[in-house]
Design brief:
With 238 residues, this protein is mainly alpha-helical. It contains 9 helices and 5 strands, in the order ααααββαααβββαα.
């Protein structure tokens, strides 16, 4: 399936840019409201969340890349968190000359307390139907992957790049066509992960093939019958 390239002058581009900008502003505004009472800036809270999600300590460069900020910005946030007793520095396991960052006990508590989903996001999602929520999540996954492929963001831990992802494994079930081999369960587009702590990177050629399978059908964009039929056709091949 070949996508049509949108010209930058297309009115859709301007409207989507405006909409995403407003959503970003709302997220930043609520981030300030949520973190200020805990004595943290949004960037400091994001550092804690990044380290909480990481299985190993991270270097400063990895923190900066993970948050898509400059090294000086990450360094300022890290220094403040170390001073607050929320982060600890140690020698990196693979290089004794490098410094690795990890959460202290207080840092883990702070990260967990800030991990609750904002109520305003839940309220916005409630304005969408069940099917629209699935389309929205699917669209987010596709946009994040595109940004990753362009090099605009660091690799994200999404379902579509994971070795446990089996797109359209349950072609007869339009509601839950995919399969997660990690938990051995079927799931639908609404349950796609944009960031999963159990993510394990798939080898490129297999990931590319599964991505093609994932985008080759309309999924929840069509009715249940046509979606299931399209899934069967993709799996059957030419």
């Amino acid at each position: 399936m070949t996508a049509t390239r949108l010209p930058a002058s297309d009115p859709l581009v301007a409207q989507v840019t405006a909409g995403l900008s407003r959503l970003g502003l709302a997220l930043r505004t609520h981030a300030w409201r949520d973190t200020a009472p805990r004595g943290l800036t949004p960037t400091q809270a994001q550092v804690l969340a990044l380290l909480q999600a990481s299985a190993t300590p991270l270097r400063l460069s990895a923190v900066a890349a993970g948050l898509s900020v400059t090294l000086p910005t990450a360094s300022d946030a890290v220094k403040a968190l170390v001073a607050k007793g929320l982060l600890a520095k140690s020698k990196a396991g693979d290089d004794a000359r490098a410094i690795a960052l990890s959460l202290t006990a207080a840092g883990r508590d702070a990260a967990e307390s800030g991990a609750r989903d904002p109520d305003f996001v839940a309220a916005v999602l409630e304005a969408l139907t069940h099917a629209e929520q699935a389309v929205f999540v699917r669209s987010l996954v596709k946009m994040v992957r595109t940004l990753q492929e362009r090099g605009d963001i660091v690799p994200a831990r999404t379902c579509v790049t994971c070795r446990y992802f089996r797109p359209l494994a349950h072609a007869d079930d339009a509601e839950r066509p995919h399969h997660c081999a990690f938990v051995d369960a079927a799931f639908g587009d609404r349950s796609l992960r944009v960031d999963c702590s159990e993510h394990a990177e798939e080898v490129p050629d297999v990931a590319a093939r599964r991505w093609h399978e994932f985008v080759a059908v309309s999924g929840v964009l069509g009715d249940a019958t046509s979606a299931a039929t399209s899934a069967k056709d993709v799996l059957r091949g030419p």
